[in-house]
């Protein structure tokens, strides 16, 4: 009998920035308690999963030739996790990543690929599995993976994996400054611990005003409230970021912040047209590798142009 091979499934998945990232003290398990407001942006990766006799991962675009294609790739770990969950050992799956999200850029690109792979594989295998069940698997792969499934704007607590959606009425417009080289997330947390031992750098306050500004939809109000406890550590490891942050505001942005553990800087703009102008001006300032314009919030991982994902 002829085996029917299902057609490949492609999933688009957003990047994230943190509008607010409060880092608590180091916990006994080595993680920090976080309170963060995630915001999903239209800078995306596209992930295609297909049945194949040559299982593995291939990477194109951002991180091509750098991102591991073996068992360490988060997308491959997602294949294995879902396969184990549904009792399909040795999955014959090939995953192609078309990456627009910068690697080690503080925008959760690897987590996005893992989330997209879960959604894509669930569709390819026609699994009866809801997004909440996928989120349980996602949380074991990494603290940023569940958010990439849901997208939107959400408050994350714990390690960032406990999510509550936040009302965000209007689109916000952003310019992203991508750096030449990534920063490793663990090294940025270690640097924050070191700075806190050496002195007591100021900590950002509660997330409540940010949540209120999001509900109002006023970018000027939100601009005053962007905050990230990891920013001082990222700047300490990459002092040039100070110049990048200043250049974005000089170019006309309302405010700038380091995204997550950096080094990508996100600049909030007064509208879509303003974002295009800020991007053009920032691109000419010579402070970053490249710039991107994006808006948020956008939905989480979704099958492109086909059947509905779970
Ligand atoms: P976060 O914001 O969640 O801390 P990040 O955006 O700073 O993450 P990633 O792009 O997710 O960082 O990559 C971190 C490291 O993970 C990379 O240096 C890379 O070697 C490894 N990695 C594994 N799988 C992937 C993937 N699919 N895409 C990108 N990096 C991956």
Automatic annotation (TrEMBL):
Sites where the protein binds ATP: 102-112
BP terms from Gene Ontology: isopentenyl diphosphate biosynthetic process, methylerythritol 4-phosphate pathway; terpenoid biosynthetic process
Statement: the UniProt record of this protein carries the keyword RNA-binding: no
Catalytic activity: 4-CDP-2-C-methyl-D-erythritol + ATP = 4-CDP-2-C-methyl-D-erythritol 2-phosphate + ADP + H(+)
Record SUPFAM superfamilies: GHMP Kinase, C-terminal domain, Ribosomal protein S5 domain 2-like
The organism's place on the tree of life at top rank: Bacteria
GHMP kinase C-terminal domain ranges (all copies): 211-283
Domain GHMP kinase N-terminal: 73-152
Catalytic residues, chain numbering: 16, 144
Record key words, sorted: ATP-binding, Isoprene biosynthesis, Kinase, Nucleotide-binding, Transferase
Protein name: 4-diphosphocytidyl-2-C-methyl-D-erythritol kinase
């Amino acid at each position: 009998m002829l085996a029917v091979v299902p057609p490949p499934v492609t999933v688009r998945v957003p990047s994230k920035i943190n509008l607010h990232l409060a880092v608590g003290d180091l916990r006994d398990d080595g993680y920090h308690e976080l309170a963060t407001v995630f915001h999903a942006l239209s800078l995306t990766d596209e992930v295609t999963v297909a049945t194949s006799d040559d299982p593995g991962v291939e990477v194109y675009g951002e991180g091509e030739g750098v991102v591991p294609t073996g068992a360490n790739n988060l997308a491959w770990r997602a294949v294995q996790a879902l396969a184990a969950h549904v009792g399909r050992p040795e999955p014959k799956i090939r995953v192609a990543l078309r990456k627009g999200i910068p690697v080690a850029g503080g925008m959760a690109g690897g987590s996005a690929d893992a989330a997209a792979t879960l959604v894509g594989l669930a569709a390819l295998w026609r699994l009866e599995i809801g997004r909440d069940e996928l989120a349980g698997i996602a949380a074991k792969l990494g603290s940023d993976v569940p958010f990439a499934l849901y997208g939107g704007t959400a408050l994350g607590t714990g390690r960032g994996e406990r999510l509550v959606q936040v009302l965000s009425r209007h689109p916000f417009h952003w310019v992203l400054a991508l750096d030449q080289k990534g920063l490793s997330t663990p090294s940025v947390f270690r640097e924050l611990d070191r700075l806190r031992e050496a002195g007591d750098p100021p900590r950002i306050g509660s997330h409540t005003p940010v949540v209120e500004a999001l509900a109002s939809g006023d970018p000027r109000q939100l601009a005053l409230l962007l905050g990230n406890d990891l920013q001082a550590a990222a700047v300490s490891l990459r002092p040039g970021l100070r110049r990048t942050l200043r250049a974005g505001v000089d170019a006309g942005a309302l405010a700038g912040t380091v995204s997550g553990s950096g080094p990508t800087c996100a600049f909030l703009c007064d509208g879509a047209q303003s974002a295009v102008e800020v991007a053009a001006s920032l691109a000419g300032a010579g402070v970053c590798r490249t710039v991107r314009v994006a808006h948020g919030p956008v939905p989480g991982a979704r099958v492109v142009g086909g059947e509905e994902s779970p």
